[in-house]
Design goal:
The structure is a homododecamer.
Chain A lengths: L2 E6 L11 H4 L4 H15 L2 E6 L3 H9 L7 E5 L8 H10 L3 E5 L21 E4 L4 H15 L1
Parallel strand pairs in A: 1-2, 1-3, 3-4, 4-5
Helix pairs in contact in A: 2-5, 3-4
Chain lengths: ~140, ~140, ~140, ~140, ~140, ~140, ~140, ~140, ~140, ~140, ~140, ~140
Amino acid sequence: MPSILVLNGPNLNMLGKREPGLYGAKTLSDIDEMCRATGAQLGLEVDCRQSNHEGELVDAIQTSAGAFDGIVLNAGAYTHTSIALRDAILATGVPVIELHISNVYAREDFRHESKIAPVAAGLIVGLGPDGYALAIRAFAQRLNA
Amino acid sequence: MPSILVLNGPNLNMLGKREPGLYGAKTLSDIDEMCRATGAQLGLEVDCRQSNHEGELVDAIQTSAGAFDGIVLNAGAYTHTSIALRDAILATGVPVIELHISNVYAREDFRHESKIAPVAAGLIVGLGPDGYALAIRAFAQRLNA
Amino acid sequence: MPSILVLNGPNLNMLGKREPGLYGAKTLSDIDEMCRATGAQLGLEVDCRQSNHEGELVDAIQTSAGAFDGIVLNAGAYTHTSIALRDAILATGVPVIELHISNVYAREDFRHESKIAPVAAGLIVGLGPDGYALAIRAFAQRLNA
Amino acid sequence: MPSILVLNGPNLNMLGKREPGLYGAKTLSDIDEMCRATGAQLGLEVDCRQSNHEGELVDAIQTSAGAFDGIVLNAGAYTHTSIALRDAILATGVPVIELHISNVYAREDFRHESKIAPVAAGLIVGLGPDGYALAIRAFAQRLNA
Amino acid sequence: MPSILVLNGPNLNMLGKREPGLYGAKTLSDIDEMCRATGAQLGLEVDCRQSNHEGELVDAIQTSAGAFDGIVLNAGAYTHTSIALRDAILATGVPVIELHISNVYAREDFRHESKIAPVAAGLIVGLGPDGYALAIRAFAQRLNA
Amino acid sequence: MPSILVLNGPNLNMLGKREPGLYGAKTLSDIDEMCRATGAQLGLEVDCRQSNHEGELVDAIQTSAGAFDGIVLNAGAYTHTSIALRDAILATGVPVIELHISNVYAREDFRHESKIAPVAAGLIVGLGPDGYALAIRAFAQRLNA
Amino acid sequence: MPSILVLNGPNLNMLGKREPGLYGAKTLSDIDEMCRATGAQLGLEVDCRQSNHEGELVDAIQTSAGAFDGIVLNAGAYTHTSIALRDAILATGVPVIELHISNVYAREDFRHESKIAPVAAGLIVGLGPDGYALAIRAFAQRLNA
Amino acid sequence: MPSILVLNGPNLNMLGKREPGLYGAKTLSDIDEMCRATGAQLGLEVDCRQSNHEGELVDAIQTSAGAFDGIVLNAGAYTHTSIALRDAILATGVPVIELHISNVYAREDFRHESKIAPVAAGLIVGLGPDGYALAIRAFAQRLNA
Amino acid sequence: MPSILVLNGPNLNMLGKREPGLYGAKTLSDIDEMCRATGAQLGLEVDCRQSNHEGELVDAIQTSAGAFDGIVLNAGAYTHTSIALRDAILATGVPVIELHISNVYAREDFRHESKIAPVAAGLIVGLGPDGYALAIRAFAQRLNA
Amino acid sequence: MPSILVLNGPNLNMLGKREPGLYGAKTLSDIDEMCRATGAQLGLEVDCRQSNHEGELVDAIQTSAGAFDGIVLNAGAYTHTSIALRDAILATGVPVIELHISNVYAREDFRHESKIAPVAAGLIVGLGPDGYALAIRAFAQRLNA
Amino acid sequence: MPSILVLNGPNLNMLGKREPGLYGAKTLSDIDEMCRATGAQLGLEVDCRQSNHEGELVDAIQTSAGAFDGIVLNAGAYTHTSIALRDAILATGVPVIELHISNVYAREDFRHESKIAPVAAGLIVGLGPDGYALAIRAFAQRLNA
Amino acid sequence: MPSILVLNGPNLNMLGKREPGLYGAKTLSDIDEMCRATGAQLGLEVDCRQSNHEGELVDAIQTSAGAFDGIVLNAGAYTHTSIALRDAILATGVPVIELHISNVYAREDFRHESKIAPVAAGLIVGLGPDGYALAIRAFAQRLNA
């Protein structure tokens, strides 16, 4: 059964606890569960991880080669600065869909740039927690094609 | 039955005819049909239009108020320069999902900026023709919630 | 009797219908009527047009030569990007007063630049619908001098 | 009777004496008289002052609170650099119409930026000495509304 | 017989009528006639069109595929901003020579950038109406080679 | 007894009267009194001055040499533009602590730059009127060391 | 008893050992002890931590919610680049005073920008190790008010 | 008989030997011969020179006054940086057509700017070696007019 | 006898007292005396003034019309920011030589720009107090020619 | 015996496994072995480490003081953003040679800037794995001198 | 007897022949003679050279060490781009006065920057041919001091 | 026997004579001799040249094709501006190692950019005269591989 890694970066463990006006009321556990359920429905195994450490995210991407068929990556704040994540994606070769819960283009200028986007397969932005399910579905379609 | 407008901008009528390496082999008719089928499956009426004229796209957005519950907008080249489309979206109030077939962030710098993104509900980028179906599904989830 | 063209650009046909907090409650018809009334009072014929199409605005300016003694131009979103409107003004030679209902300098950065301003006779900005009447009056004074 | 302050900044005391090709032949006295006459006609008391000193202009704005219902401010060269004037306007709360006799957008780049415009009620630019009368009239309409 | 499209953009219908010091005394009809005559002399059919509407220029380029062997494109003001024209050229595949009557590099800064130039076969700039004839000749040499 | 000059720039005489949401309800007199009281407690004489005139602030700094052991300088709007104040500080050699009542980094971009900061001994920003007392205490510690 | 977290970032564990001309002769232990002593004097419990790892600093801020009433944060080099720290502060909601021992505005340009400052309560910059004590005192005043 | 100088700058002596994919297979001798033949056909004497030295190109332009009726200048790499060539053209007054064999706008950014273009009569870019013949023809037309 | 105004701006009254390594040991009195002596030697009356106030410098330039044949202007810090001084020079029409004692181009970047230079007759920079004498001599040569 | 630390940053543990066209076929183990062999030949002990974590690289540099005579640092992606590494080098004082296997100047713009280079002893760039041996040799020459 | 080198760069051999409106009617020979005469009057030997070649100017500066006590350098167009001239001045150590006949700050933007100014002793700009005599006089004063 | 060209640019003939603090005490002859000795040791013939003239450096690179197997190029000041050298390297095809004796990244900003680096095989920077020997050794390894 093909498998997908849902990888969340810094401060996403705070989801649902703070700033619900911006990020919604769902916790990261809620989202993880929704991801696994969506995957089950589409015949995909889904593994969910989170870290506040850039290096651990790099490690996770590096070790995904051979283990996962796709990565849904919400790199949070590291999206905008991390060349290391970009290089890890290039070095690993597993396709990545970049995801943001809120619409980063409606926020501060420094959130408009993504170091990851040019090496991502695609992006889903601003569609809330639903975006995770859509990204998993996109991988399902991709793997079926 | 709620209804969705799929609105395509300049040169998207050329899909499938030129540069298939970049945009895929599907024609705009293929995509329109897929959109309507996806809508039907999700209980949404889907109307599809295309124009090379910025003013006609503005007209189409203005007249969508009251007529549509959401717009999937691939504004093509006008994405990057059209403040008129942005203002039309603001003036009309119908939620818009911005869509690009190819990953614009892996292309020329001038394609990285979107005048529309800050006023869009969300974005789906680089996921190919599948992106249209995902956008319609996103509206379905939104309308159900 | 001298005559003035009041030319409104994209989305100004939405006036009074949407975002009244920003643009006020008057519709474009209300403004057109006020313009004609002000003109009548000052001995000027006033003709009012609106289009969402950049090309139609260019056409309107080109054909104003010989037909009008002045243009009150609220080019809306095209103000900030349209070199074609600028060139049309230069090619036609009819004096233009650039007008904005809201104070564009209190809004997004991209609204601070005008491609038209350097070739305009003058500007009236942020004075609401009253600005149209003041612009017509300015032409009256100019034509009397 | 409501009253308006017409406040002119550096070098406007030289009007009519130098560079008449750019600023016209009227002296500042001529303009002051015209302003008072326009005010009288519209039921407004008009007080006119000029200073070459940024600090004196700040003083004048600060002391206008309670004394004036509006300020027509041609801050001349300080328009482009004075955050102190901007802060004085914000601190005082009297509405300000920013005015320039010549079309600053047809001149050097550094004259295109105004530190005052974002906190002004509106702007009248490039309409010559007539602009002062239009600004007073704009206040009259505003006070009547 | 091979055929060439001479496509002129906004305000070029004003040629010879206004600003002759900048653009010369020839009207667009004069130039069209000269183009057809030059084509006839070189064994090329030449078709001439003009529009002030960006969308119509996009339409014209799209429909040139199969119908023309080359396009001489003076996109006027749209040269500097139109990504839609650029994309149309890429989508259509007909070779384009970009043309400007005046030397755009001796004019305002915003005329120095061309969105079209990177996808053009070549450029002829500042050589007056003669430039059209030279462009047609360049296509003749290209088609013979 | 060592002495400290508390020097306030343009519009700080408006404190407590306007925009209390941003700057608090204390007047400048309240702050001056608090400064003198804090100084008395720490064995420092404190002198307080305010001016809206850049030149007067320059004069005050120049004449502080020999008269004061430190300056707490809230230069207000001149902070961001005044090279003259910077040069006066360098020429005079009395150590300066730059102070802002509100957090300038949470406000407009032009308030983020300080021409004075590079020649200041240190900065206290955004801590409200308390900041003045902290600055005086910092000088007390410095003079004791 | 209210409590304060003093959180130091990368390379601050080297204080007193290297570059004493720039950062002074006190070690981080000296500063920690001074912080605890100042806290004790003002009725505040003070906890001191240091890490060279951005992720650990993010963890520390996240877990401070409920545990601390304020954070004195010297994020060292991460000040200038870490959006993750900024987001952690926003997500956690504990007030932060940003601190720098040296005057960063008198050093390299890249040290002038702080990603943290716009979300900080205030800043104390360039006042040496004394700055830590002043920051703790600022929290004491704040908690008393 | 009028005469034209064809002046080639650095590395153009390498034509045909290296990078034929970019610059074509013709050597500089081939081009020189073609230029002289085109000139002969049009009643123009054509003289061809090449140098890798900026100073020698300046010398050549200076001494062209009185000796030549026009210069076809391919300044190669010096196009983008040489103010000295620009000044020589201004000081000499002989009309210059700037020429590039390849389309410089489809290459690196630094090749998009020309220090010479603003003082050139016109430009021919990207039309290969044929461009030289077209430039000579342009001078022929110009001299006949 | 023709007369020259030597006008010094902010902080130049501190000359010789502070930073002698940068500005030399001569006081402003020494320089004034040297200027008058040089003038006497060349048949020119020389008047010397200094102010720290931008407005007073504007006043001094405005009143120099008819009174002086030339101005040697060391505007100090205002050189880099004062559009008011620039406008005063333009409005007054008396020729100005801009002077700096130290080489501003070897100092901070913000000292490299002069708002005055484009409207000055010429500049003398970095030649120390001798520069004043050279400037007076330049006016003498100019008045003799 | 003097000793050298060879410190590799993020993704360099992937060498030889991915993108061999860009980085070559050698693994990091191969390079480490080559480094130790080169050191042995030159009388230097060589220790090799790698981490994907910025904080661990900072730790490694801090603890190199007294333990190593030089560091060969390939900081990978952190080269371009890490002020923390720069500060660690400054704080530690051990000389560093910055190394890149590929020619970063022939790649994306963001790889052209190095935060480390200004505090490095020197750089070796683009010479492949051989660069490590050359760097060790450079330290050998330096230690012998 | 001390000696001065007057070194002129590209296109200055054209002085008096072209663009007299900008540079005056004097030829370079006239200026050379005036320089020698001024030198003779002040007890200085003056040697004058000109070259259009950057390399020859570098050679001339390098060989001036020991041979000349000062250089008056009008580097013409190379002023704005030549780091080689800057390095030659630094390597040679002979003091240089940079000179421009016209006011470069009243001309194109690219003439406002000088690569030489930061390493020059001083500058004389815009004072016409008289500037050369003033520069020689400045060296005379310097050598006497 | 393979051969290497060591090519030095402007002002490198001054090595050892001036600014030894920056560039060391070795003369260019010393370095040339060291290069030849290193080459002899590694079985490479080494030829050394220097010129202050950009054109001569271009000539030298052009004529190296077929004559040399590699070039060690210290282009000095031309490194930062010379597109002609870049083009010569591309046109010639001989591999180039770019070399700088001092660490250019620790110096002025304009020395951080290299026009040559993107087309070089690699770079050695800041390792002093030793760098030349390392570069020759790098070619030796390359030729053996």
